[in-house]
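Input (Tetraspanin):
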Amino acid sequence: MGSNNCVSNCGRVLLVTLNILFLIIGFVLLLLGILVFAYTPALDYVLAAATSAFEGSISGQATDVTFTADRLLSIIQLFAYILIGLGAFFFIMALLGIIGACCKVKCVLIVYIILMVLLIVAQIALMVIIFSERQVIEPSMKQPMLDMTMKYTGSTGENGETITLNFLMISLSCCGVNNYEDFNSSIESGSWVNKDLKTPLVCCVTPNKSDDSCAKHPDYKNAELNNAEKGCYQALWDYIDDESDLAIGISSAIIILQAILVLFAIYIVYKESKTEVGFS
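Output:
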């Protein structure tokens, strides 16, 4: 009986400790999401730092790509809903775990167990899809990227689609979604920066404002001049594959930890059920 109580008590301590950590993470995510919408003065500092970091990443590019805090904010706001959603989820989950473990409330722990199991299943499914069955999500990923090329307006464009594509093409050294031909239907096709270009300037490996020949006449057989035939969709997956070992390792560790929490929660519920019916 003593060993059983020890397991139960250790489980409660672990549940409370880790869920306090998740509670803090949820609160921070929730707060960040709210700050983006509220646009408090504190966000100015974050935007300035992020803007400087982005400009530093493209400092070797000779194009007219510009990036202001206002433009960055317009992109960040798109992710505010995600931050708030994730923050609220983690916060509520952690709160359920803490209340259930501290107060030994069976119904709360049961809800916690169900939600945690669903989360584990979702994470495993996501890992399988990303690293094994990615064709399942290809249409939902690729088409939105292709839609973005329709609204591309060049290296100086200020809409969210243009900023995102410029960032991807510079960061991943790619051009378009499949290749440069994706830009043929864009609203500014062939006239970016008032020039007759076959590809955006950012598709050039070493873009030069005084020499745009690589964008006017890209040498498709020479990747040293232009990334015209290297699509960003595949480049993005290549990047994910390169980091797959680390991602799988971290994800697996998180899932195992969550599974341990579920087992402890189940054991506490089991112990409380036995106590209610008069067993020790």
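The CA atoms of residues 165 and 279 lie 64 Å apart.
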